[in-house]
Design brief:
binds flavin-adenine dinucleotide, eight-stranded mixed beta sheet, single chain, FAD/NAD(P)-binding domain, globular, alpha+beta, 19 strands, 10 helices
C-alpha cells in the first residue's frame, strides 16, 4: 500500500492530523495498534483550551462538542478547610471547556469513516524503514506482516510508541522527571455537585473532582506509585474521596457506580528531537505532562496544527523550511506548559518525607494564586493555555 502521509496512532494527535491533511487535499493512512472498540472507549483527558475548541470547530468536528461541552466560568481550589474560586474567563472571552477525550476521538473516527478514508485498527507498527528518504512503515495486521510506503511519516503513537525509537540519539535529546506517586482516575455515574468540584490539596494527598456530563463525574486520587487498584473497594474509594474533598468542608459527595478505573504514573518528559528526515513526532510521542495541568491533549492539538502546516509546505511546495522550524516552534509552547503542569503537581501533592514546612510553602503558593491579583492572572493564563507560535 502507498500513501502520502503514514500516520502512526489513532489518538487525538493522529486523527486530527489526518483530518487537517484531508482539508488540504493530502492523502493519509492512519495505522492503530489497538482495536476500534478499545480506542473509542479509552477514557483519558477532558479539559480543552479555547485553541483546541477553535481548531476542532475549524475542521468541522465540533458539532457534538458545541452541544455537550461544559464551559468553565471559574476553577475552585481547596486547601486547609477553605475553598477559593478563581475566575477563568480570559481576554476575548477565552475559557476552558470540559469535553471527554474519548468523545473527541469518537467524533474524529466517525468522521473519517463517513468520509471513507483509511483507518486501520489492530495494526501494530513494528518498524519504520528508510526514514531519511522514502519511508516504509512495517506493521502486523490480522497476523500478517504488511507495508505502507509513504512520502512522510507522522509518529503520533504516544509515549510508549515505536516512532521515537527512530529518532537518532533520542535519549540524548530527552529530559524526564518521574514523580513519586500516581493518579487513580475514576469515572462515575454520579452528578458532580458544584460544591465539591475542584482541585483539592489534602494532607491525605491530592483529590480532584470534575464533571464529564450532567450525570457523570471524573475523579482522581493521589496514590502511591505502585498502587494496585484492586486493593480498594468502590465504597473505600468513595470514603477516601469524601475524606479529602468533602467532609472537612461540610459537604457531601454524590456517589454512584464507578464505570472506569485507571492508574497513571505522573511524569514530565520531553524529547526535543522531533524531526529526522521524513519522520516527525507529535503529541505524547515526544512529550508527556503530569495530568495535573490538564494539558496533554491540548499540547497534542497544538503540535498537530504546526506539523500539518509543515507537511503541507513540504509535500505541496517542496519547501522544507517549516519542517526544520517545527521543533523549535512547538517547544516554545511545550516547555512552559510542561513546567506549569509540574508546578501544579509540586503544589497539590504530598511528597514522600514531606515536612510541615514543605506543606506551609505549598499553602503560600495557593494563597498567591487565590488572593493576589498577579497570582490569579498567572494561574488563569497558564490554565487557559499559551497561544500557538506562528511560522
Ligand atoms: C493512561 C492515561 C491517562 C491520562 N489521563 C489524562 C487525564 O486524566 N487528563 C489529562 O489532561 N491528560 C491525561 N492523559 C494525557 C492525554 O490523554 C494525552 O496527552 C493524549 O492522549 C495525547 O494524545 P496523543 O494522540 O499524542 O497520544 P495517545 O492518545 O496516547 O495516542 C497514541 C495512539 O498510538 C497508538 N500506538 C502506540 N504504539 C503504536 C504502534 N506501535 N503502532 C500503532 N499504533 C500505536 C496507541 O494505541 C494510541 O491509540 C492521560 C494519558 C494516559 C496515557
Amino acid at each position: 500500500m502507498k500513501t502520502q502521509v503514514g500516520i502512526i496512532g489513532a489518538g487525538p494527535a493522529g486523527l486530527l492530523l489526518g483530518r487537517i491533511l484531508q482539508a488540504h487535499g493530502i492523502d493519509a493512512v492512519v495505522v492503530e495498534r489497538r482495536s476500534r472498540d478499545y480506542v473509542l472507549k479509552r477514557i483519558r483527558a477532558g479539559v480543552l483550551e479555547q485553541g483546541t475548541v477553535d481548531t476542532l470547530r475549524k475542521y468541522g468536528v465540533a458539532e457534538r462538542l458545541d452541544r455537550e461541552g461544559l464551559p468553565h466560568a471559574d476553577m475552585k481550589l481547596f486547601w486547609k478547610g477553605e475553598r477559593h474560586s478563581i475566575p477563568m474567563t480570559g481576554e476575548g472571552g477565552r475559557r476552558m471547556t470540559t469535553y471527554g477525550q474519548n468523545k473527541i476521538v469518537e467524533d474524529l473516527v466517525l468522521r473519517r469513516e463517513a468520509d471513507g478514508l483509511p483507518l486501520i485498527f489492530d495494526a501494530e507498527v513494528k518498524a519504520i524503514e528508510n526514514v531519511t528518504d522514502r519511508p516504509v512503515i512495517h506493521y502486523d495486521h490480522n497476523g500478517e506482516a504488511q507495508t505502507l510506503e509513504c512520502d512522510f511519516v507522522a509518529g503520533c503513537d504516544g509515549f510508549w510508541g515505536v516512532s521515537r525509537k527512530h529518532m537518532p540519539d533520542a535519549d540524548a535529546h530527552s529530559f524526564e522527571k518521574v514523580f513519586p506517586f500516581s493518579w487513580f482516575g475514576l469515572l462515575a455515574e454520579a452528578k458532580t455537585s458544584t460544591e465539591t468540584r475542584g482541585f483539592c490539596h489534602s494532607e491525605r494527598g491530592l483529590a480532584v473532582s470534575s464533571s464529564r456530563g450532567p450525570d457523570v463525574s471524573r475523579l482522581y486520587l493521589q496514590v502511591p506509585p505502585d498502587f494496585d487498584m484492586a486493593s480498594m473497594s468502590d465504597d473505600q474509594i468513595w470514603d477516601e474521596l469524601s475524606l479529602r474533598l468533602a467532609n472537612q468542608y461540610g459537604k457531601t459527595l454524590n456517589r454512584g457506580p464507578i464505570i472506569d478505573k485507571a492508574v497513571v504514573r505522573l511524569r514530565g518528559f520531553i524529547c526535543e528531537k522531533m524531526v529526522h528526515g521524513r519522520l516527525a513526532l507529535a503529541g505524547d510521542a515526544c512529550h508527556t505532562v503530569p495530568p495535573s495541568g490538564a494539558k496533554g491533549l491540548n499540547l497534542a492539538v497544538g503540535d498537530v496544527r504546526l506539523l500539518s502546516e509543515a507537511i503541507v509546505s513540504l509535500l505541496q511546495e517542496n519547501d522544507d523550511s517549516k519542517l526544520a522550524r517545527y521543533p523549535d516552534l512547538a517547544l516554545q509552547r511545550i516547555w512552559p506548559t510542561v513546567h506549569w503542569s509540574c508546578t501544579m503537581s509540586d503544589v497539590f501533592h504530598i511528597f514522600p518525607g514531606q515536612t510541615a514546612f514543605d506543606t506551609r510553602r505549598q499553602y503560600e503558593v495557593l494563597n498567591f494564586w487565590a488572593y493576589d491579583e498577579t497570582g490569579q492572572r498567572v494561574f488563569r493564563e497558564n490554565m487557559l493555555g499559551r497561544p500557538l507560535p506562528q511560522y
